[in-house]
Amino acid sequence: MNRILEANKLSVTYNGGFMALNAVSFYVDECEIVAFVGMNGAGKSTALKAVCGLAPINGGSISAFGQQINGLSVDKLVAKGLTLVPEGRRIFSTMSVLENIEMGAFTVVDKEGTVVKKRKEKVYNLFPILFDRKRQVAGTLSGGEQQMLAIGRALMLEPRLLLLDEPSVGLSPNYVEKVFEKLIEINKLGTSILLVEQNVKAALQICHRGYMFESGLITYRGTAEFLQNNERLKSLFLGR
Predict the structure, then answer these.
(1) Residues 175 and 213 grouped into a single domain
(2) pLDDT in tens, 102-151
(3) 26, 64 in Cβ contact below 8 A?
């Protein structure tokens, strides 16, 4: 199986000397869904930001598709096939749904317009509600619909690795289920997924493997089944 992403002994220290990550190592293989789980402040979002170049590392290395990506600019990371759906969705709330989706392909060179058209069709096939609401102002969508829009916008770049930061935050249980079902579908279409998620139960239901973060360290790692049966995770997150 091809290795999509690998971090080796990754460390991040913020101003004031606070160590947000302490020599953590993790990887994502082709066609996997991998989850980072843990409490607020555990380091999981920092790890994701380090991969995206949004949190400067001061130790260790990160490689994607067999090449080191430490210090690469965001546009170069996107060109390599990494795309982030940030926490809070960050849609363009005053623009229409269609305009938001088209902004996802802003960097795509497509003189004939055929590439963008095909990608929009793929997004609409995944999220029919976005087609129905394409003329609607994005800020008037429900939270769940906005999350679908943020994912759809990211998919316009046709990423090989889709990174998601807390996609369930602020969503109703019904929309959490809908969004996570779509992540399974996206993965089956060939996109690897790295998911940062506080909703541990939902994340472990869809991921192949996971990592538990605590105080800047990875304390447990393994298959979804292994983590679901882990006594500490059960006591902290899974309602035992």
Answers:
(1) yes
(2) 998 877 767 567 888 899 999 999 999 999 999 999 999 999 999 999 99
(3) no
| Tokens of residue 230, six digits | 């882990």
**Lookup: tokens for 193:** 């997924």
Dihedral (CA of 114, 119, 124, 126) sign = positive
Task: Please tell me the distance from the alpha carbon of residue 7 to that of residue 21, in angstroms, as a whole number.
Answer: 12
- pLDDT for 38 equals 87
Same domain, 43 and 154: no
What CATH number does the domain containing 69 carry? 3.40.50.300
86 lies in some domain: no
Counting beta carbons within 10 angstroms of the beta carbon of residue 3, is it exposed (0 to 12), middle (13 to 18) or buried (19 or more)? middle
Task: Give phi and psi for 231, each to the nearest 5.
Answer: -65, -40
Same structural domain for residues 54 and 107? no
What are φ and ψ of residue 82, in 5° steps?
Answer: -100, 130
- Domain holding 142, by residue range, is 91-158
Final residue of a structural domain among 114, 141, 158: 158
Q: d(Cα 5, Cα 62) in Å, to the nearest integer? A: 7
| 137 part of a folded domain | yes
- Which pTM does this prediction carry? 0.92
pLDDT digits (tens, 9 = 90+) for 189-222: 999 999 999 888 899 999 999 999 999 999 999 9
Pairing mode of beta strands 209-214, 33-38:
parallel
Residue 28 lies in a domain: yes
